[in-house]
Sequence to fold (648 residues):
Amino acid sequence: MDSREGYFMEKKIYGVMAECGSTTALVEAARKVRDAGYTKTDAFSPFPIHEIDEALGIKRSILPWIVFGGGVSGLLAGIGLQWFVHVFDYPIIVGGRPFFSLPAFIPAAYELTILLAAFGAVFGMIALNQLPQPYHPVFNVPNFSLATSEKFFLLIQSEDEKFSYEDTKRFMSGLNPQEVHDVEE
Amino acid sequence: MQELKEVQSKLRPAMVEGEHSFGSVTEKISDLTLKKKTPFGWFVGFGISFMLAQLLIFTIIYLVYKGIGIWGNNQPIGWAFDIINFVWWIGIGHAGTLISAILLLLNQKWRTSINRFAEAMTLFAVACAGLFPLLHTGRPWLAYWLFPYPNTMGMWPQFRSPLMWDVFAVSTYATVSLLFWYVGLIPDLATLRDRAKNKIYRFVYGLLAMGWRGSARHWHRYEIAYLLLAGLSTPLVLSVHSIVSFDFSVAQLPGWHATIFPPYFVAGAIFAGFAMVLILCIPLRHWYKMQDFITHTHLVYMGKVMLATGLIVVYGYAMEAFFGWYSASQYEFFMIKNRIWEGPYWWSYWLLIFCNGLSIQLLWFKRFRESEFWLFVISLVVSVGMWLERFVIIVTSLHRDFLPSSWAMYSPSMFDWSMYLGTIGFFFTLIFLFVRFLPIISIFEVRTLLPDAEVKGDHGNHH
Fold:
């Protein structure tokens, strides 16, 4: 950030970020942030920490419903396709079986159920997470590259109603972090 | 609660050995890709595999030019190496999904350090498997006819045919395995992106990581997605080999038309797959010094799974013979007699019993189960055995048809062998590339195994 713009215009602040050294420190800090009433917050860790959901007040994702929807549509598409092919569009008697021979239609419908449910899980997760997102302000923090190996970060965004640069930064410092960083836009 | 945990930790050995922190785990695994000099052995292994893969390319070119007559297939043995190898490869793939999905659902922590390359093994094995039925169609450039799409011929595929079920099962399996593998890789790709010094590496890993930043909200959805994918892969993997077995059991041929086929095939697949995982991971942990993560305990557990699934397979052989006799059908009983002692291929049956039935009995003994050398040897023997199993099922059932006038013998041509060896080369080429360019062990999952990953003094500050 050696840009000279800073001399002439105010730096745009995306938020304030605390760096923690352990999972325990992160979760404790996150609880305090939540209890202080901040809502536009996030935590960053090199692996999933289950306690953080409750500590930050993260609501359960709707993802399972997307997966369920994918599965149901796969099943209906599978049965529907085979009905269309073998009953409606091109009925032909094979081995004396009825046109709508459901037992023989199960394998393809079953596989399509799983395929579309899996698409729901993967693409649903990617979409809800708003990925791919090559740029994000948090990447501007130099130490943030450690978030994918060994460090833990807690962020309060400037969008938060309670956010005021000075107070929030002071509050963050009181959480006993290893360091507090400004996140520039 | 605390006591329970202590007891558990005594019963279940630690899955990461040595003193490790988040940083050291990250460094040790990612340095293989980013920093360490590629070992000389890698070039030798890759070179040999790549040369064998050329054999595959030559065979395919000649096959497409000349037709499948270059194979040894005849009438009545219309299925031979092509289908044997297809089933063999796809079976090998199954252990990868078992490790990554079923063991995840069963909360078996030991899966964590072997799941990544077991999944890679699945993908590459399925890629090899897919080649055989594709080329077996004779005109592979028309293979898209297998998919239901509206066309000017006004034709549709026949969904009552097990071969159609195969198309859906195998393509779904390949797709879902790829997605599962990729989803598992995303956080590790982000680690590589953040640690890479080389610009090209940064760019490529960055592209693949899609901007992953380890946000708690992302992890939350990520874990749900991962768990659901495991839940979906479990019935999927069981269905794939069941459907492969339907290719046989729906036909009326003695030796194929048996109700035991689906579970027997699935057990055989997992058996063969664990053998392949052991074949890959014993040298890998040695050469890359990953003994801290792929511990001795891992090998012993895999040996036990191999023994258990092997016994199920042996039970299958016993039941096949029993059904042949108990059916009171002369054709069924003739098939069994012909397969075991009267026919010209009796030796393949007994070789199979030796490889899959007898050799694994050594695993009952600690001495063999705990020895890397013996585990490796037994795994090789089992891989041969599982190949022979498909040979026995396919060739010895077909070569003595209902009518003695149509009886024949089968011998593979050199192109059968070159294609088989070629796929082995192709498989190992992909494995070597994977080992070189991607983290062979799931870094983020190994981090969760460390004691520091636990949140301490958590009195549950719940609302």
Observations:
- The first strand of chain A starts at residue 13 and ends at 20.
- Helices of chain A lie at 5-8, 23-35, 51-56, 63-89, 102-128, 165-173.
- The two ends of chain A are 11 Å apart (CA to CA).
- Residues 1-6 of chain A have pLDDT under 50 and may be disordered.
